[in-house]
Amino acid sequence: MSDQVAAAKTSDQAASRAALMKLLFFAATLAILPISSYFFTEKYVWSGNSNYAAITAICAANIVLIAYIVISVVEDKQSFKEVEEKKLSGTKKEQ
Amino acid sequence: MPAELCPPYAPFFGFAGVASAVTVGAAFGTAKAGIGIAGLGTFKPELIMKSLVPVVMAGIIAVYGLVVSVLIAGNLSPSKGYPLAAGFIHLGAGISCGMTGIAAGYAIGLVGDSCVRAYVHEQRVFVSMILILIFAEVLGLYGLIVALLMNTKVTSLAGACD
Asked: Keyword annotations for this protein (chain B) (predicted)?
């Protein structure tokens, strides 16, 4: 019984750590990617035209947003499936 | 005539435009949505990852303000000739992005707070929350587009101070 509790606690810790790393990754990407893409494309891609570079930065920021929404929805579906599988295995063991 | 068109106080308006594009609305949006997320976290912690979307969207509003500030500051040249008209254009561009950022951040904050609280009880609120938040954020994008449009007019003023 205590082994199961300890195993559940470590898996919970691992899951929360993974979620935290994911959040930190998205926060860092949202802070760094748009402004760095602005300067990079202004210099190398659009040859000095700053308006196109601003549009590129906005597209990069919106891509980060869409990626976050997609990943959160996919992760939610995965965790829902895991919960259902646990319920099924629990009922099978009881039988 | 060039001395009238390019007075020495012209860069003040340009830099005021840079400062006014800065993120006030995003802070309000993050704070208000964060209150709702903290309330949700006490009941259903597994929903936190999905409920952080309003905070990410408020961050995007901040990115819009930052990009406009960098854009305007890149076109400023106070040491070379800087016409007063260019200063006013930059001020208008900064104000348009800043005001729409405040409005969009306010909307994202209120919508995020109440939709996240409703998400605790009803799972299907999530899709409607995303749609409403996207419409609120596009308001900030419109302000940025207007700022970009204004900024393109400055290049036609080059050489007015010679």
From this structure: Hydrogen ion transport, Ion transport, Membrane, Transmembrane, Transmembrane helix, Transport, Vacuole
